[in-house]
């Protein structure tokens, strides 16, 4: 009951006319910046950080909450309309969302993303408010072996969405893992795969990789086929979900929320793994054979998981002072600017600030739905821009976004190089999903594996000395064995019928 009263007090502070205005401004500005190709929430917050310096701490954090959720939704918009994720967590939304857009269901994809974001963000924020201390205690107890096992599970499950050719899928995964290895070996301090280029010593920024593979790769691929394919204007539907769309979406929204929030609440959990797991889960449970062709479940689940994870990241940030994402790091920097130090004592030292922030997150989430759902047709009309002008604009903003990461001209060269890789993988039919997943998860997996081995003095048993790790390894084993058994069973059933079918054809 105390928590509810504190949250209501937070709403009282957040709902003043001035604070409400800053919340609306944050949502609109965040969405606008997030829609630009190649600019995700972290970059949007970093670019807009200076405009909040003249505000009071409460007003600044309220505006940041609006920018945060607005930029999150903007990232899903570019993923759906342009197949250009503004951040790595939006990669899964692009897989089915862009297919829906090309089928004339862009507005429906945007609507299910907006509603899913609202549901997941609201539930996630309420969970932060009511259960943050308990969840933080659990998160602290999870060690490196369990993190390593969870990441291994993600790489194993990737085989279920690789498409028809497993070989091409593993080639993509190998390319991604190789890119993830570029930089310094944290244990030995030796440079790896840098080719003697000093700018690569710190590794490759994931924003540059994602924008190069998706934005530049997609733009160059389309440009190479403009003369072969007619310039079709993609039809735009109504921005509201039908009864069938709602029936197919509400379960993925809830499942995505349940998958995403725990990962956001875990230190170093991140949002890439839960969005991927949500996609795999919905693909396995789908009753419609639309995955790969624009399944609405493939948008609803990952987008809910993404936003639930985004809400969950406030648990380690507020309770432990531990930023687990790039976006959380920007928020931490903003708090430190005002002398606010997140950690175990924050709830007692700055209760008004914390509960106003949580209330403003709920408020910004609701404003996001109110402001952006009616604008779904406006965003969908981006697809009606002639492709030469559209993809020229994408290349411009992609270059601007890649340069804005570190303001280093070398990143533009890297962007073009990864754009060439993106073009090549499209040319040879290599799936993009395992490639980008290898880039994201590979380095994290290496760090956790080495932490586990260091704790056990190099003994392999260090990877198995946690109960959660053993459970996850059991799931990994099932994920490997069960598809093989099902495949053998299917072959054993179809083998005897083949001669019969041949005799029937001969008789005819």
Automatic annotation (TrEMBL):
Q: Name one Pfam family in it.
A: TctA
List membrane-spanning regions: 20-53, 109-136, 142-162, 169-186, 206-224, 317-341, 353-376, 388-404, 430-447, 467-486
Specify the superkingdom.
Answer: Bacteria
What keywords sit in the KW lines? Membrane, Transmembrane, Transmembrane helix
Q: Which InterPro entries match?
A: DUF112_TM
Q: Which residues form a coiled coil?
A: none
Which intervals hold domain DUF112?
20-437
Membrane among keywords: yes
**Name listed for the protein in its UniProt record:** Tripartite tricarboxylate transporter permease
Provenance organism: Nocardioides marinquilinus
